[in-house]
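Researcher: Going back to the complex we discussed earlier. I've cleaned up the inputs and rechecked each line, so this should be the final set. Can you rerun the prediction on the complete assembly and write out the structure?
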Amino acid sequence: MKKITAFFLTAVIFAELIIISGCSQGKGKKLQIKDINGGELATLQSISDGRTELEGNDRRAYLEAVLSESESAVAEAQGCTVKKAREYLLKNECTVYTAFDDRVFESVKKAYESRGIKELDFGCAVTDLQGNLLALYSSGSIDGNYVNFATEKTPPYSSFKPLCAYAPAIENGLADWSTVYPDSPIKKIEGENGQKYDWPVNATKTYTNENTSLAYAIKTSLNTVAVRCMQTVGVKNSLDFLESKFGLTLDFEKKKAELYGEDEVIGNVALGHLYEGVSPADMAGYYQIFATGGSYRKPHTVLKICDKSGETVYENKSEEKQVIKSSTAYIMNRLLQNVVTAGGTGENARCEGVSVGGKTGTGDLGNWFVGFTPQYTCAVWHGTELVKNNACEIFSEAVSGFDNSAKKNYPSCAEIKKAAYCLDSGMLFSEKCRRADMGYFASDNIPETCNKHN
Ligand SMILES: [Zn+2]
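Model: Rerun complete. Updated structure for the full complex:
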């Protein structure tokens, strides 16, 4: 597992660029960066003595991402190196049009500032439902070295379960809302001291040892069920799913599974203990599929780059792709909304008057809440020092301050049937069943009527 200190490694780019505040004094070539409304976000000028002058700019996380993306885009368009691309941007006095949304950013920032959170590690990313990154925010510093935690990769823990296990299981008809799994350990593993331990361990360190529905397991983040669900999907199929849908390649886990077998890596994948990890910006992007009816567009900050004569140098023409069935997206959406209700692990992410779904994640390197609304996705990551400042509460306060008026509902889906099911068998409810709940099912994957209590 990657240590936080390894984050330093990615920290140095754009040594020649600094923000010129009150830029009329700036001499030489400049790079203009515009927000989503065409307003000025920053003006950069070539210098040589390092990026430390970016310090104190609260939009730095976003600007870092803009610069990095702009470099790559120009390098690809011009067929040149990243260094040459950087020179090109300045030499041609380019203007970069971005998706930065000031209202969204200010609301995120306020959520942290109102809690007095400044120094400790955190990262937050917000997208609309077309993959536009509207805001990135990061505490950004380890021992004085800047780290952009909004784009830095770290293990996603249980916030990964919907992506790696539950969505592929439902998509492929291997499970549905009501499928029951035993909430019990799968095996004993040997610890360092030779003692045997139950595995996997739930966060509560307890097991009910009873059949538990997939819906309840997501709501309460049961590790036993996530791993059992992953067993039905298969690690290779899960990794293939993530790569084909999102372009997410988990090479370490893939290699390990090939060398030592799927069992060696099933817990790491199912429970999001990823070697390289994913960033808040990545996660905000992936969770689009649960709010859009199944479509995904790679998250991005840069919309267009023009040179000083107004000629377009680069334009982001990536398109939304339907990556899962709308019925799968609908069911996952409902399952993840339940996480944010009473008794769910994401209960504190609720927003007054806004429909919210999402998933928590907690582990040694931090804690997460990744969620969505009918207009936005928002991923919050906190370093372990911030555990007491729940990521759910930051999400709730930030999202409550967005303009949530444009859309109140998620896409509907004609191929969905709402039905009562038996909590003991996971099959459709019959008169003889003892315990029932309501669930949502794809019309081509409806369980049979319960016959377990005759
Ligand atoms: Zn029954």
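Model: Worth noting: Residues 245 and 323 are 6 Å apart (CA to CA).
Researcher: Good, that matches what I expected from the previous run.
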